[in-house]
Specification:
Beta-lactamase; single chain; 5-stranded antiparallel sheet; about 500 residues; about 20% strand; 3 domains; disordered N terminus; Nuclear Transport Factor 2, Chain: A
């Protein structure tokens, strides 16, 4: 063991020219906020005895901020973490496995409702009921196996085959609950191998790493040059000690990837490009979006970070991504990683085209709290926000009819544009009465503000009036011409 005690200091990341140019293009007014967030990561590291960490923000396909902190190893003098330092990302590797399964599905090589024994005949005697989807969504009934599964990383393929033949007990009946299983994702790695006819790591390397230019990313940690490799440490009894090295083995598909911030940002950008944004125009958007389709059971968990006491998330598990709707950020996809010697976390805000991630080199030190706090601060400061949706022709015409209804104080002049349910839900006479009462409260209104679309057939609008405001919503019917199915004018003094 090595006894060390120090406060983490900010270290300048050594960037290659392309990455440096990317960072330099970041919007200048955000730099003070980034500096504040750097400080919060430093504080988290000191509180959790983390030797080194790198974190980054990806926006519209670009790495707009990246910062290395602390040291990538403690047995050498001053070897700071950089954007090129390789960290094991543990269970954040599962997203690559999930993506590979979906790509094979798209290619007709497998079906999600296939019985897993079709590709793993060793399990037929005890797991005939398990499907590929069960493994993907953690509904096979296996017991939650952290941290047992982490230590199986090095298991040889022959030993894994023996384990599958022998069989494993299950904690619950298949398809009745969500139980996170590293074993299940190790089985998916073997399925990828059988369905593709290629070694699992080679398949992911040639179909994901290489096309994205993730040239420093690998399943074999020892392949990373020592000068770039973050050593994994445990902190115990006031001391750091180096965790034993674990080579790539049969459980690599559940958590074996080593990558750098510069490389991982490319993966984040690729995932985000499935939603309207700048980025990789060649992205297989349908496949990426399918990674966010929860296929298991919703489960409760606390929201990471300082907002946790005010908000809980009820997410589901997609294909290597946890998906839910956050009380601050809206729709999100995220995943953590814990491994002997390493901890990591990633968070995607697809509607804003933003992803935030952090990688560290201390056992199970997952930096989820500072990642979510960073996203929350940027959101509340208006530095990230949902992308604007362009108003469709139908919505624009419908909004014109809504403004005419307000001005006229009656719906009668717009009857051709009202859906068949509209006057059944409120009569023309009652509309006139409600409009008169609302207009009396707020006076004349400036209705020149554009509608804010929430979709092609829905939107909201806000008007400033003489003695108050109008907050309205418009919802069109699913018809080829404008038909207003719902309209509201909420007044506030």
């Amino acid at each position: 063991m090595k006894t060390l005690s120090f406060a983490i200091a900010l270290s300048v990341v050594t960037l290659n020219p392309a990455a440096a140019e990317t960072v330099s293009r970041a919007v200048t007014e955000t730099q003070s906020a980034y500096a504040e967030l750097d400080s919060s990561f430093i504080q988290w590291m000191n509180d959790n005895h983390v030797p080194g960490l790198v974190w980054g923000i990806v926006k519209n396909g670009k790495l707009v901020h990246v910062r290395g902190l602390g040291s990538q190893r403690l047995d050498m003098e001053h070897q700071p973490v950089t954007a090129d330092t390789g960290f094991r990302i543990a269970s954040m590797s599962k997203a690559f496995t999930g993506y590979a399964i979906l790509k094979l599905r798209d290619a007709g090589k497998l079906r999600l409702d296939d019985p897993a024994w079709k590709y793993l005949p060793e399990i037929k005697s005890w797991g005939a009921d398990i499907t590929v989807a069960d493994l993907l969504h953690h509904t096979a009934g296996f017991v939650t196996d952290d941290p047992w599964g982490d230590r199986q990383q090095v298991m040889p393929e022959a030993e894994f085959t023996k384990l599958l033949k022998t069989g494993v007990p299950r904690n619950s009946v298949r398809g009745t609950r969500y139980e996170y299983s590293n074993l299940g994702y190790a089985m998916l790695g073997r399925i990828i191998q059988k369905a593709s006819g290629k070694d699992f790591a080679s398949y992911v390397g040639s179909n994901v790493f290489k096309p994205l230019g993730m040239n420093s990313t690998t399943y074999e940690n020892a392949d990373v040059p020592a000068i770039y490799r973050a050593i994994g440490y445990r902190f115990e009894n006031g001391q750091w000690s180096e965790e034993p090295y674990m080579k790539h083995g049969a459980f690599g598909s559940m958590g074996g990837i080593t990558t750098s911030a510069n490389d991982y940002a490319k993966w984040i950008g690729y995932l985000l490009s499935a939603w309207p944004a700048e980025g990789n125009a060649k992205a297989d958007k349908a496949t990426i979006r399918a990674m966010t389709y929860g296929g298991g059971f919703a489960h409760r968990r606390g929201r990471p970070g300082t907002e946790g006491s005010n908000c809980r998330i009820t997410p589901t598990y997609g294909a290597g991504l946890v998906v839910g709707n956050d009380c601050v950020l809206g729709p999100v996809a995220f995943h953590g990683g814990g491994f002997p010697g390493y901890g990591s976390h990633m968070l995607l805000i697809p509607d804003a085209g933003v992803g935030i991630f952090a990688l560290s080199n201390r056992t199970y030190a997952g930096p989820s709290a500072p990642v979510w706090d960073a996203a929350t601060l940027l959101w509340k400061n208006g530095m990230i926000a949902p992308r604007a949706i362009e108003a469709s022709a139908l919505l624009t015409d419908g909004y014109g009819a809504a403004k005419a209804i307000w001005r006229d104080g009656s719906v009668d002049g717009q009857r051709p544009l009202l859906a068949m349910n509209f006057l059944m839900d409120r009569s023309s006479e009652n509309w006139a009465k409600a409009l008169a009462e609302a207009k009396a409260k707020v006076g004349d209104c400036d209705d020149g503000a554009a509608i804010t679309p929430t979709g092609a057939l829905a939107g909201r609008f806000n008007w400033t009036c003489t003695t108050g405001k109008v907050n309205g919503t418009l919802l069109l019917a699913p018809t080829p011409t404008v038909q207003i199915q719902s309209l509201s004018f909420e007044v506030a003094n």
